[in-house]
Request: fold
Amino acid sequence: MSKLSHFDESGASRMVDVSGKDVTDRVAVAHASVTMRPETFRLIMDKKVSKGDVLEVARVAGIMAAKRTGGLIPMCHPLNLSSVKVDYKDNGADTVEIFSEVRVTARTGVEMEALVAASVTALTIYDMCKSVDRAMVINDVHLLKKSGGKSGDFTFQA
Reply:
């Protein structure tokens, strides 16, 4: 197991110095899901939630969150992101799956930005629908894949 990079030799917290790393194209894709009552799912799909189009508002929230990750996660480098996409897949019954893809050309990766985008998208779905379904469950938040950088590619294996 490699040592934790956010601590120096004496155990003090630090932001990793990436100035010596190569600038490369980096991409990360993350996943989250929200499971709810079938009635809530139908309201979302039919765009009948009183607060508006849940999936479009949540998409914007996820994109905005990715752009602010450096201010949310300690020691996370602020990045000038090239692209943030949030897409959905549904099971037609009670679950909305969220997929976020973040791209950058930089010295550090965008895994945290992709995870934050997927998480905040899920939280926004919950927030917009909690008045009709407080039993919604946000789960399965994880990195699906990443590419670029010294550590190379990663693909989640379930």
